[in-house]
Every structure is written in C-alpha cells, then in structure tokens.
Recover the amino acids of this structure.
C-alpha cells in the first residue's frame, strides 16, 4: 500500500467530490475556499494551497476532521466503520479537548458521556 503525497491528495479530492454539497453547506455562508479549490483542480494550479485553505476553513466551521481527516491513509487514521461520504453526515461525540481518540454515538435517551480525565461532556461533531 502506498501513502505518498499523490495518494493523500487523491483521497482528499475523492472525499470532496463525494460530499461537495455537504462541504458547501458546512461552509455557508462563505463557500469561497471550496470554490477556489474546485477552480484550482480544474486549472491544475495551486491545488495544494487551495486544499489546505479548505481544510482550515472546514475545521473553523466545526468539521473536526476537515479535509485531511477523511483520508483513508494510515498517516491520517482509518475511517470509522459505516461512515461513508455518500451518506448524510452523522453526528459523533468526541473527546472535548482532543487529547484522545475516544468517540461515541449520541443517544437521545441517555445523558451525554463525559471525559474520564476532566469530567467534561464529550463534544458533538459531524462526520
């Protein structure tokens, strides 16, 4: 299995291609980073910079994984079972401070789980 820059770029673009509408919705009202990336890919100019700008914008909009976190390469982690880009985005509870990789699924019939280290409630993010 290869994990070079081309593979990482291909995985990132595959994620974007498979979830363009969801990414656009997450960025609203400013979808410029997505539009700039799509144009950069079309012209094959400045793709890496545009991709990194989109990654930062998605994280700022609340998508903890951004673009690179959805990659399937070992360097960025594996996808969660059942988390497929072509499906609607799913809620997931994650470590409130980002110190660990704990995750859980929200359950409306039980209280939100808390961190065993500092007692903070796990925070919700979207896949």
């Amino acid at each position: 299995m290869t994990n070079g820059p081309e593979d990482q770029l291909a995985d990132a673009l595959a994620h974007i291609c498979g979830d363009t509408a969801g990414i656009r919705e997450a960025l609203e009202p400013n979808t410029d980073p997505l539009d700039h990336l799509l144009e950069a890919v079309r012209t094959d100019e400045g793709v890496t910079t545009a991709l990194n700008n989109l990654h930062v914008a998605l994280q700022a909009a609340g998508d903890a994984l951004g673009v690179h976190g959805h990659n399937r390469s070992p360097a960025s982690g594996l996808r969660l079972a059942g988390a497929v880009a072509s499906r609607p985005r799913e809620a997931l509870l994650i470590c409130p401070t980002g110190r660990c990789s704990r995750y859980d699924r929200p359950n409306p019939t039980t209280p939100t789980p808390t961190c065993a280290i500092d007692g903070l409630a796990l925070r919700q993010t979207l896949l």
Remarks:
- The first strand starts at residue 91 and ends at 94.
- The mean pLDDT is 79.
- The helical segments are 5-18, 20-27, 32-43, 47-60.
- The radius of gyration is 16 Å.
